[in-house]
Design a protein that fits this description.
By secondary structure, the protein is mainly α. Helix content is 68%, strand content 1%. Helix 3 runs antiparallel to helix 4, helix 19 packs antiparallel against helix 20 and helix 23 runs antiparallel to helix 24.
């Protein structure tokens, strides 16, 4: 059992991380339990693998430890300390995964890769089935959250397929060319149906690399197998879209995606450029340790170029590390990758032909994943991050020198135990939190386990909102209790953790406005607008209401004049085209309320525009509800 523990744990974890329909995107918290499970499991593996023979390595290990160390330091000194812990543990676990296996022989590698092969095939079949009978126009495989209809991630699935499809080529020499060809046809059709432009570019590059390596080794059976793959890919692509059309479901217009000839594509193209430039600006402002893990959205808010044009990341893995974790972390990561690449190239001819082929195709998968990550970022899914570092470890393990001696892995053991113990404590707190019937209940002052966690996210904001909800009711029976004051104190704790949290400042403004403290309210509303001026219409509405209620008509007029260009763009473009799904949000009603408040100072035609956007939003929402109701039986069946 001890001999195969690593294989059993990693295979089981991989399959569950890939195929479960709930724990996926760990940076938002949905994948938090899986991150904790991986960390604890690697702690046990560190003990199991402690005495395994391994090669002594210096620079590679040093650069990886520099990356991990500065990643952790960026969290300790983060501007947004309440939200980055899951990402820290995920990346530390991924780095530990490499340190545990990269410098030793891995007897179970082929078995694990076979698990990856069949897991990928199963994921593709699931994705094809869901795509055929659901209204979504892009394939997302098992990368969705079953409880949140809108949480579907085709680009993340595309990255996963780029990383894993080359694994199939490792098994083509086992007299099963045609079976592998069939499976590849299924996987390739799934990849194409994600309609990810970046993935298609990366995939084309991967095909070129494969041809360059295998062109001289191609025989008739490989040609026939390749032809079979092409036929199956084309047949599934055309056939499944035909089925979709027959079910009166819309399919993606390939021409529009290729030419960027639709609203989503246009905003996606321009916003990516803005994100890259913004990430560079943020890096210049805090070059040493960055703004903190998972901080990009809130750090970028203040320099955001277009309304709603924000993201959780700058759509580039290297710019993300630079902006969030600093230039030393970026240096460590790039230097680590370069040293792995140098070892691979310099020792490539020293290993056997089967190992060279396996190392090469795994490298093609890793390079494809990084190529896609130059214009997108999907390592915030634990299965993608795990496989990236594990494949790097597999590649490096092929080139372990034959003359290595038994060396105890103290670094892997110590790091593994520390991370595992911390993860266990956080996991216990998380479990306690889940058992609370209402952990934010301020009226009965119940035990709040998240107070003990380092992963508070929106905890204090949620508690403050509860205090605000209970304010009137509690005052009737507990006159001595000032719930507004409690809410302010709680929001101040939130701001201590996250100085970029615009909502905390906004809520403070709401409380002060209610209490008639206009100057304090004004200061906090202004801070909220400074931190986040391009995403929340409620900030504008409540600030304008404050100015009008305090008889600051000159200030109100000036504020309206500054804001109307933003109103124009929103009512004329964003709602009608439902950019970033804004028609489903409260922003539509908020901007309509802003128009009502500003009506004495603006052209009366805006009242007509207000009516139009409200009607448009209502229509889009009803269509979405109808679509979800029709889709629910299919989702339940799957």
């Amino acid at each position: 059992m001890k001999k195969y523990f690593s294989y059993i744990f990693l295979s089981s974890f991989f399959l569950f991380a890939l195929l479960n329909p709930l724990f996926k995107k760990y940076d938002y918290g949905a994948g938090w339990p899986l991150v904790l499970l991986l960390a604890v499991g690697l702690g046990v593996i560190g003990i199991v693998e402690f005495k395994r023979k391994r090669e002594r390595v210096h620079f590679e290990k040093l650069f990886l430890l520099i990356f991990m160390g500065f990643y952790l330091a960026s969290f300790i000194f983060s501007e947004t300390k309440n939200i980055g812990l899951s990402e820290v543990i995920a990346y530390l676990s991924a780095g530990l995964l490499y340190l545990l296996f990269a410098y030793q022989k891995i007897p179970w590698m082929e078995k694990f890769l076979k698990v990856v092969l069949y897991g990928t095939a199963i994921a593709s079949v699931i994705g094809l089935g869901m795509y055929a009978f659901q209204p979504e126009t892009r394939m997302f495989g098992p990368f969705f959250n079953i409880f949140h209809h809108a949480n579907e991630w085709p680009n993340a699935f595309a990255l996963y397929l780029l990383l894993t499809w080359p694994v199939f080529l490792i098994f083509t020499g086992k007299k099963n060319h045609y079976w592998i060809a069939v499976l590849l046809g299924i996987v390739f059709s799934a990849l194409i149906l994600t309609y990810s432009r970046g993935a298609m570019i990366a995939f084309a590059g991967q095909i070129v690399l494969i041809l360059l390596y295998f062109v001289r080794k191609i025989k008739l059976k490989q040609v026939l197998a390749t032809g079979l793959t092409v036929v199956i890919t084309a047949g599934i692509f055309l056939g499944i879209n035909f089925v979709k059309i027959q079910n009166d479901l819309r399919i993606e217009d390939v021409t529009e995606r290729v030419t960027f000839d639709n609203t989503e594509s246009l905003t996606s193209k321009q916003e990516r450029v803005d994100f890259w430039i913004g990430a560079i600006e943020l890096t210049k402002e805090k070059p040493l340790l960055g703004w903190g893990p998972f901080s990009f959205r809130q750090a970028y808010n203040g320099i955001q170029k277009t309304f709603l044009g924000n993201s959780d990341h700058p759509h580039n893995v290297f710019l993300k590390i630079a902006a969030e974790n600093g230039i030393f972390a970026l240096f460590g990561f790039i230097a680590f990758l370069l040293t792995v690449g140098f070892t691979t190239v310099s020792r490539f001819k020293t290993i056997s032909k089967p190992k060279r082929q396996a190392a090469y195709v795994l490298s093609v998968g890793v390079l494809g994943a990084f190529a896609h990550s130059l214009i997108d970022y999907n390592f915030n899914f634990i299965v993608n991050l795990m496989l990236l570092f594990l494949f790097l470890a597999f590649i490096r393990s092929f080139f372990v020198k034959r003359d290595f001696k038994a060396r105890k892995n103290y670094i892997g053991l110590i790091c593994g135990i520390l991370i595992a113990v911390f993860a266990l404590s956080e996991g216990a707190i998380y479990a306690l939190h889940q058992m609370q019937p209402d952990p934010y209940d301020a009226t009965y002052n119940r035990f709040m386990p998240l107070k003990m966690s380092h992963y508070k996210r929106g905890f204090y904001t949620a508690v403050a909102e509860k205090y605000m909800e209970y304010d009137v009711a509690v005052q009737q029976v507990m006159v001595e209790v000032d719930m507004g004051e409690r809410a302010i104190e709680t929001l101040d704790k939130q701001i201590e953790l996250n100085r970029l949290d615009s909502r905390a400042f906004y809520l403070k403004g709401v409380i002060y406005a209610k209490d008639g403290e206009f100057e304090r309210a004004k200061s906090n509303f202004q801070k909220a607008l400074q931190l986040n001026p391009m995403n929340e219409w409620s900030y504008y509405v409540d600030y304008l209401r404050l100015l009008l209620s305090s008889s600051d008509y000159a200030g109100a007029k000036s504020f309206i004049e500054q804001t109307m260009p933003l109103v124009d763009g929103y009512v004329l473009f964003y709602v009608e085209n439902n950019v970033h799904f804004t028609a489903y949000t409260d922003n539509v009603e908020a901007v309509a309320e802003f128009i009502d408040l500003a009506s004495p100072y603006i052209d009366r035609s805006y009242l007509t525009k207000k009516t139009v956007i409200l009607e448009t939003a209502e229509l889009l929402r009803s269509e979405r509800v109808q679509s979800e109701e029709e889709d629910e039986p299919v989702r339940s069946a799957n």
